[in-house]
């Protein structure tokens, strides 16, 4: 048996150590942040907090949830993520279904989509487009520009292609239309793929911050990631002009930590529910017949 | 049934798109506003661009950027509504947004605070900002004119061909840096605060080797500073004092006006000796071991933790590091003036006269309204008028039992932090005429705390107050950068490279990864790779900037 050989065991040990190290390098920063969020400002400024809270308190969380801008931004992020995911999934699945069939001009269309993967118009043209369409300062400016992703489309399309053609033909014979087949056969059968891509899109929407700062001209319209960006980035401000009060604001590390932690929580909570599809989705995508 | 659902979603999407298209309205101010008794009727709106500051997301009582205590005050008292129409996050995002606005995809706000000299130049070139020389002459109130008269060099970056395309944002010389020293360590080791470079060396050597915290471990060091971004941070965790001790007025990373000729500080005589000193100290463990990786703000942690004995910074820095007095039993910090140089002259530091400039949309016709509002904001600085004590009771100050209180924890409704109301209109920092700390100096000389500025200063803690007095007494030590213009032609192509090289060489020498002779190579290369050309161009810029007398044109002479 190959897994009993000495070489395999060494490989396995090495593999475990490596994966544990990788896992730790992801986990420890989060733990540090968590400890900071429960610690006092004094202890943090004195560099006394590592992975366990010092002067345990929940002030940072109380302040965060009492900050209407934080909760408001969180709400916008939730709406944006839900809307963005649904719109994206709608576009990508319908387009993916169509493109998984053979029809005239399919390759040309495909090339156009792939072209957008390789080259983008850049910041200025997209900004002008969004502004001239009047999307600025609306939630559409966050949701629409990124709704169609060629990469996700290809994933979904390939998933649809793995579904046996015979199923579709049988359904045709039973009198089903394209839409019925799409809805009743293709979508349920490719749940793992949908969940995987859906998660990508969801996380992408949740984490995107630049578009919020770019298209919103009022802080109260910022999604959470943009709000955090403006709050947290202050810490690296390197301007000579920093005044006393700005400096005081810079040192509120425990609040920043709490905000970062709260903001990552919802998306972490989504993972366990999608986990089973996620693994399956990747495996299925890898096996070709 | 489901088909209709799909259709509905699509329709909703399209409707959203179309509805959005319509909102690009171009309504015009039909009714003409008139200024009557210091108030516009009907109210006018001034749109502004804004780089977010620490107020981001910190408005109280559910207030927001465009609806807060100061904007409401403006509408009620002046008939002027300030509306932020362009908002950027940190400096680079803000500059990106201004550049995007330059593409003409939307209307440029009326008032544009700009903090980047090359962007200032681009705005001037674009022809979208107006020449305000006459407006300043006509509308700027006299007390503001007095202030701007004192800082003529702040106009340099915005003057082109005898036209004035902007003005400094609340010019005022910032406070200088002081030495914050662990007094308990000095006392324990029977040392005096250092006044010369040799004494400084003695103190940091003792702080490193003689176990000042008495824990029996060799875990302390003398001097804590940051070298990540520059060896001249200009505000906290600075090391510029050591350079200045050897170079006098030539500070690293800064241009010095040597009798009408501008020279670059990092390549000046004496820098090599300063680096030699730092290299020696670093190898002996007297300095912050991680200085090259820690930014100004991160470098403080060692001091606050009780590991380092000396740090430099603006006087208010005490408030940020005083946690050490809580964390470490018996710790006590005291502020001292910076040391003297090797030729027994004082040491110098970077002073700053303003934080960016105001520029104005060329279609903006309400300069008078702008100056009206701007002058009112200065009320707090002068301690006059509506803002005698501060901008808004219960926000940045409060009156408790007939006493003016600035400590937000003692307000009638206690706040975690006082609100920076003065920053909510156009300026990033509340306007000040206090110089490097005049109010503190006056108080120390026994002046009674009669207006907001003085009361506010008096409410600071002792160490901070002492620091400000030191800063004021040493205000001649503050040297503003002599070059504040847009990047010159050669700078655009090679400045970043030269800067990187400078940072690398300095750090490597201090870390002993390169011999001291690497500095000579650096100076040679600096000159060859564009430094000489840049120096020429900068001197040319300086001569041009000081050639045209725009000051009298603006009535500032």
Tags for this model:
heterodimer; A: 289 residues; mainly alpha; globular; B: 557 residues; alpha+beta; 4-stranded mixed sheet; 3-stranded antiparallel sheet; 19 strands; disordered N terminus
Description:
The complex is a heterodimer of chains A (289) and B (557). Chain A is mainly alpha-helical and 289 residues long. Chain A is built from 15 helices and no strands. Chain A has helices spanning 6-37, 41-45, 59-66, 68-99, 106-118, 123-132, 140-143, 150-161, 165-173, 178-189, 191-207, 210-215, 224-233, 244-250, 253-286. Chain A is globular and about 75 Å long. The model of chain A is unreliable at 235-241 (pLDDT under 50). With 557 residues, chain B is an alpha+beta fold. Chain B has helices at 2-22, 69-78, 91-102, 117-126, 133-139, 142-150, 183-188, 197-209, 240-247, 271-283, 300-305, 317-321, 323-327, 367-377, 379-382, 438-444, 452-458, 462-473, 489-510, 518-545, 550-553; strands at 34-36, 39-41, 44-51, 80-88, 111-114, 159-160, 163-164, 167-168, 178-182, 221-224, 255-258, 261-264, 308-313, 333-336, 349-351, 357-360, 398-400, 403-405, 478-480. In chain B, the strands form eight sheets. A four-stranded mixed beta sheet of chain B has the order 10-13-9-14. In chain B, strands 5-16-8 form a three-stranded antiparallel beta sheet. Chain B is globular. At the A-B interface, helix 2, helix 4, helix 6, helix 12 and helix 13 of A face helix 1, strand 4, helix 3, helix 11 and helix 12 of B.
Rg of chain A: 24 Å
SSE sequence of chain A, one letter per element: HHHHHHHHHHHHHHH
Number of strands of chain A: 0
Supply Rg of chain B: 26 Å
Q: Brief overview, please?
A:
The complex is a heterodimer of chains A (289) and B (557). Chain A is an all-alpha fold.
Layout of strands and helices, then pairs:
The complex is a heterodimer of chains A (289) and B (557).
Chain A: H1 6-37, H2 41-45, H3 59-66, H4 68-99, H5 106-118, H6 123-132, H7 140-143, H8 150-161, H9 165-173, H10 178-189, H11 191-207, H12 210-215, H13 224-233, H14 244-250, H15 253-286
Helix pairs in contact in A: 1-15, 3-15, 4-8, 4-11, 8-11, 11-15, 13-15
Chain B: H1 2-22, E1 34-36, E2 39-41, E3 44-51, H2 69-78, E4 80-88, H3 91-102, E5 111-114, H4 117-126, H5 133-139, H6 142-150, E6 159-160, E7 163-164, E8 167-168, E9 178-182, H7 183-188, H8 197-209, E10 221-224, H9 240-247, E11 255-258, E12 261-264, H10 271-283, H11 300-305, E13 308-313, H12 317-321, H13 323-327, E14 333-336, E15 349-351, E16 357-360, H14 367-377, H15 379-382, E17 398-400, E18 403-405, H16 438-444, H17 452-458, H18 462-473, E19 478-480, H19 489-510, H20 518-545, H21 550-553
Parallel strand pairs in B: 3-4, 10-13, 15-19
Antiparallel strand pairs in B: 1-2, 5-16, 6-7, 8-16, 9-13, 9-14, 11-12, 17-18
Helix pairs in contact in B: 9-10, 16-18, 19-20
């Amino acid at each position: 048996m190959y897994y009993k050989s000495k070489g395999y065991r060494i490989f396995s040990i090495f593999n475990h150590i490596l994966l544990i190290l990788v896992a730790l390098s992801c986990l420890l920063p989060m733990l540090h942040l968590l400890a900071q969020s429960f610690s006092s400002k004094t202890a943090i400024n004195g560099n006394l907090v590592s992975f366990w809270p010092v002067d345990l308190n929940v002030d940072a969380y109380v302040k965060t949830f009492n900050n209407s801008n934080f909760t408001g931004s969180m709400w916008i992020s939730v709406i944006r993520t839900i809307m963005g995911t649904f719109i994206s999934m709608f576009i990508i699945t319908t387009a993916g279904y169509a493109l998984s069939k053979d029809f005239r001009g399919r390759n040309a269309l495909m090339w156009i989509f792939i072209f957008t993967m390789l080259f983008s118009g850049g910041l200025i043209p997209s900004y002008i487009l969004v502004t001239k369409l009047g999307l600025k300062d609306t939630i559409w400016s966050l949701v629409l520009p990124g709704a169609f992703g060629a990469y996700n489309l290809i994933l979904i399309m390939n998933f649809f292609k793995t579904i046996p053609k015979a199923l579709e033909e049988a359904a045709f014979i039973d009198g089903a239309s394209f839409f019925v087949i799409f809805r009743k056969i293709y979508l349920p059968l490719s749940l793992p793929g949908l969940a995987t891509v859906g998660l990508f899109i969801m996380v992408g929407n949740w984490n995107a911050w630049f578009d919020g700062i770019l298209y919103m001209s009022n802080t109260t319209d910022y999604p959470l990631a943009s709000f955090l960006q403006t709050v947290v980035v202050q810490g690296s401000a390197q301007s000579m002009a920093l005044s006393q009060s700005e400096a005081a604001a810079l040192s509120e590390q425990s609040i920043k930590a709490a905000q970062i932690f709260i903001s990552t929580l919802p998306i972490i909570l989504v993972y366990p529910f999608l986990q089973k599809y996620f693994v399956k989705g990747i495996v299925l995508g890898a096996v070709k017949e | 049934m489901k088909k209709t659902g799909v259709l509905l979603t699509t329709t909703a999407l399209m409707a959203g798109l179309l509805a959005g298209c319509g909102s690009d309205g171009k309504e015009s101010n039909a009714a003409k506003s008139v200024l009557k008794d210091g108030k516009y009727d009907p109210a006018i709106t001034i749109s502004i661009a804004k780089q977010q500051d620490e107020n981001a997301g910190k408005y109280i009582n559910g207030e927001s950027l465009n609806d807060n205590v100061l904007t409401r005050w403006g509408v009620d008292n002046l008939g002027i509504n300030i509306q932020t129409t362009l908002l950027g996050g940190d400096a680079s995002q803000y500059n990106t947004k201004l550049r995007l606005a330059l593409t003409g995809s939307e209307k440029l706000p009326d008032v544009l605070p700009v903090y980047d000299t090359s962007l200032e130049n681009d705005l001037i070139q674009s022809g979208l900002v107006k020449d305000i020389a006459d407006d300043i002459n006509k509308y700027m109130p006299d007390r503001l004119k007095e202030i701007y008269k004192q800082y003529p060099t702040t106009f340099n970056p915005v003057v082109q061909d005898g036209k004035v395309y902007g003005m400094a944002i609340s010019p005022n010389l910032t406070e200088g840096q002081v030495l914050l020293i662990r007094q308990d360590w000095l006392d324990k080791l029977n040392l005096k605060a250092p006044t010369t470079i040799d004494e400084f060396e003695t103190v940091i050597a003792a702080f490193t080797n003689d176990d000042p915290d008495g824990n029996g471990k060799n875990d302390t060091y003398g001097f804590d500073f940051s070298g990540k971004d520059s060896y001249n941070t200009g505000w906290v965790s600075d090391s510029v004092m050591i350079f200045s001790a050897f170079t006098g007025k030539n500070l690293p990373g800064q241009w010095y006006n040597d009798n009408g000729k501008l020279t670059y500080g990092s390549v000046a005589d004496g820098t090599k000796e300063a680096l030699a000193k730092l290299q020696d100290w670093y190898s002996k463990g007297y300095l912050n071991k991680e200085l090259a990786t820690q930014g100004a703000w991160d470098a403080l942690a060692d001091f606050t933790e009780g590991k380092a004995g000396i740090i430099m910074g603006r006087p208010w820095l005490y408030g940020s590091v005083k946690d050490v007095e809580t964390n470490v039993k018996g710790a006590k910090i005291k502020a001292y003036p910076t040391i003297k140089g090797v030729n027994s002259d004082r040491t110098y530091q970077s002073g700053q006269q303003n934080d960016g400039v105001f520029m104005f949309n060329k279609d903006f016709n309400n300069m008078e309204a702008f100056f009206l509002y701007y002058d009112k904001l200065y009320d707090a600085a002068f301690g006059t008028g509506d803002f005698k004590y501060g901008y808004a009771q219960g926000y940045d100050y409060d009156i408790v039992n007939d006493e003016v209180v600035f400590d937000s924890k003692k307000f009638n409704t206690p706040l975690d932090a006082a609100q920076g109301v003065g920053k909510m209109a156009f300026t990033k920092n509340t306007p000040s005429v206090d110089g490097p700390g005049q109010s503190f100096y006056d108080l120390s000389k026994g002046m009674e705390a009669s207006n907001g500025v003085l009361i506010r200063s008096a409410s600071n803690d002792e160490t901070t107050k002492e620091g400000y007095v030191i800063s004021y007494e040493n205000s001649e030590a503050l040297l503003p950068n002599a070059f504040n213009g847009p990047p010159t032609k050669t700078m655009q192509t090679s400045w970043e490279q030269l800067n990187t090289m400078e940072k690398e060489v300095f750090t490597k020498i201090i870390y002993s990864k390169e011999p001291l002779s690497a500095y000579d190579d650096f100076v040679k290369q600096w000159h060859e790779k564009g430094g000489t050309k840049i120096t020429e161009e900068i001197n040319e810029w300086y001569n041009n900037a000081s050639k045209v007398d725009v000051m009298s044109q603006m009535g500032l002479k």
